[in-house]
TrEMBL record, chains A, B:
It comes from the Bacteria. PANTHER family: MAGNESIUM TRANSPORTER MGTE (PTHR43773). It is a multi-pass membrane protein. It is found in: Cell membrane; Membrane. This is Magnesium transporter MgtE. Keywords: CBS domain, Cell membrane, Magnesium, Membrane, Metal-binding, Transmembrane, Transmembrane helix, Transport. Acts as a magnesium transporter. It comes from Vibrio stylophorae. Residues 143-205, 207-265 form the CBS domain. The chain crosses the membrane at residues 290-309, 315-342, 363-384, 390-416, 428-451. Belongs to the SLC41A transporter family.
Length: 452, 452
């Protein structure tokens, strides 16, 4: 994999640019930037520390600022937009897609976003204001308004002539939408169908009915899973009265799919999914300290359990030496289950119909692995410390904790989801607290009864 | 989120189906299955325990088996294919895309895959054998061979007439590929361009040059990142001599993007990314026990460190009570950094040019959060145990461990990647071992010097 990164042309340019920046050869940097596509400049900005990022932004062609902004991840985009003068922002937003423009406007101070809106023509302003009226994470928030509509009662030939006259078709268009005189969506015709239809055939005969249109209020995760299952390239969006109001394209859906999948991984480590890798340390430290604060409580909970058995620990140091093993194994086993369940919930595989099966299965997995590792760890402890009772105690604690880890690993994420708490964010920490407390309780409790 | 899952129509059907299965109403199940799209049946199979899965498969229309297989995730597909008779497999694979067919054939016993190949017509067999000759995780392994080629010296009108005569255009086609008489790729023309071109214009005048074609050997992750950056819907694939050999479509790329993103999350928990949520317990237990085995070594390493200080632990039980706090905080802080770096490596943001910046930044984050939590935990310990020396010791250990966690969190994944070891798989465990060992060493070491 190391070679692949080094082969990546962006990495090579990144190195050239950062060397040129360090030695202050700004003209060279500007020339390098001019040779790059806007999406590659965006990648370069994301991969640069904040200070170089600002310099790079000054050196890019202002003509491309809009296109670059569209490609940036949220955190990085916010940082750059916050430093731009209102006039340059107005200039940059010209020609942006409605959804991206709405996103940028949302993150601006009220007076700046107003002045941007004021300088747009009436039709564009209306479209952007419509987009702004929908929450960001719904179909309405991610749709564009650049689609082509036709009527059902015309011939294919008329449509072809209309398209030639129009001269331009919006990006990622794979279908034209068929509407009636009230702008009701009644169907769509794929470009591929249009191209294989004889000129004298009426559109109504070859269009497909709009039986599965996306509504503006649909959650963006649901939109993504529909696109994924149906292999769509674009799809029309309708309001509650089935009026056609917009179009969602696969490139925006791909971003959602990547963000959702990354969200689980980042949340499980206690990070924001749009955390900027190259943010200033102070900003990162502040965000992450909250998560460490939650873990302090979990660690103190475990310490309080040990504290209850202070007398036992006082009598036999070997118990203190071994007491971290059982919680550690329980935490790892339980987090395997948590990760599995979080993915299952995210892709919609887990629901009421199979929760009971999953609980039984994961408990059984815990039982089997519990027996295996109880045997191994028991033997290790027996030969290390030469104490059969201690070996039996750690084996029992291991078995108990792994079974509980399996059950808690299924129950905690599902329960959190019922409470509308993100299982990816809180699941791992809650699980670890359970397995720490139970593991210590059983191990130290048994040691207190049989050894102290 | 809970409501969304319950609103999901598949979840509702899933409940109906599992109730009908339990009460043995197979005719009803068959009727439910008939009303579903192949991709929804695939989703249902993935969300069912293995036993119901087999019954459901028997009850689905064999005509749809091919389409359903194409939509299944690898682990589930393998399980079903393994149980199918060769004849039904041959029937099911009719009409499958080349890439999916190649995938299925790869997982079959030699003699079965041969008999499937034997029953195909010569041209199809040649295409599939070509696909089989490329590794699965390259452009060659994921491409299809269903594309349309045209010549550069014909008029748009000729192309339109050719398409109408052809009558069908492969799915997800957004461009026709322009080749010369030797099948060299020289350009492509988007369907949208074709539709807006006057009939008497030559293709050569409106086509775009093929300056960024994908080669068959390109890694599938690179293909995905190109699609994502360039917003492609499909792209041509060429061999080393620039002959056009295939086409990659966005639906296959979306699967790769989701798998790559899920891979990090699943690997970090020690799971295979195609682990089947509803696999039999024995199978899951066997796979996961390996990861627990790795953790046993890590836990024993930590225990050996404690063991070195058995004398100190013997003298003061409070040390044993508190000794888990510092490793726990170090592990959580370090894993935040590890998750950030793994994502940065996956999306190509981290390379030689910015590693040093990242090390300094994460060490600074560790310093700041170390100071904060050293102060808080020090105070807690002082008021809890009334021992100023003990409070100072735990504060010092906390600060040291969080700084080391930041540095190790950057260094370990990058180092693993250099060694060609997947950082998502091994990074978290290696980090935790480092923070456990260092945390215990510093805390118990200082306690031995100043308290024992």
């Amino acid at each position: 994999m190391a070679e692949i990164v080094d082969q990546d042309p962006t990495q090579q340019i990144l190195q050239q640019v950062s060397k040129a920046l360090e030695s202050g050869r700004f003209v060279h940097v500007r020339r390098l930037l001019q040779s790059m596509e806007p999406e590659d400049v965006a990648h370069l900005l994301e991969a640069s520390p904040v200070r170089s990022r600002d310099t790079l932004w000054q050196l890019t062609d202002p003509e491309l600022h809009g296109e670059i902004l569209e490609e940036l991840s949220e955190d990085v985009k916010d940082g750059i937009v916050a430093q731009m003068a209102p006039e340059s922002l107005v200039a940059a937003t010209e020609g942006m897609d409605t959804d991206d423009l709405a996103y940028v406007l949302r993150s601006l101070p009220q007076n700046v976003s107003r002045s941007v809106l004021d300088q747009m023509d009436a039709q564009d302003r209306q479209r952007v204001q419509a987009a702004l009226s929908y929450p960001e994470d719904t179909a309405g928030g991610i749709m564009n308004t650049d689609f082509i509509t036709i009527r059902a009662d015309v011939d294919a030939d008329v449509v072809l002539r209309y398209l030639r006259m129009r001269g331009e078709i919006p990006e990622a268009t794979d279908a034209l939408y068929v509407v009636d005189e009230n702008n009701f969506l009644i169907g769509e015709i794929a470009l591929t169908t249009l191209l294989t239809t004889q000129p004298d055939v009426q559109i109504s005969e070859v269009m497909t009915d709009a039986d599965e249109a996306i509504t503006v209020t649909m959650d963006d995760g649901e939109v993504a899973s529909l696109f994924e299952r149906r292999d769509w390239v674009s799809a029309p969006v309708v309001d509650e009265n089935n009026h056609l109001v917009g179009r969602i394209t696969i490139d925006d859906v791909v971003d959602i799919i990547r963000e959702d999948a990354e969200h689980s991984m980042m949340s499980m480590a206690g990070l924001d999914d749009d955390e900027d890798t190259f943010a200033p340390a102070v900003k990162s430290a502040r965000r992450r300290s909250i998560w460490l604060g939650v873990n302090v409580l979990a660690a103190l909970a475990a310490a309080s359990v040990s504290n209850m058995f202070e007398g036992t620990l006082d009598k036999m140091a070997a118990i203190a030496v071994l007491m971290t093993i059982v919680p550690s194994m329980g935490g790892v086993a339980g987090n395997q289950t948590v990760a599995l369940v979080i993915r299952g919930l995210a892709v919609g595989h887990i629901g009421q119909s199979n929760t009971r099966f999953l609980l039984a299965k994961e408990a059984a997995v815990g039982l089997m692995n519990g027996l295996l590792w109880a045997l191994i760890i028991g033997s290790v402890v027996y030969f290390w410390k030469g104490n059969l009772v201690l070996a039996l105690i750690i084996s029992t604690a291991m078995l108990t904790n792994l079974i509980i880890a399996g059950i808690a690993g299924v129950a905690i994420p599902i329960f959190l989801k019922k409470l509308n708490i993100d299982p990816a964010l809180a699941g791992g920490m809650a699980l670890t607290t359970v397995t720490d407390v139970i593991g210590l309780m059983v191990f130290l409790g048994l040691a207190t009864i049989f050894l102290a």
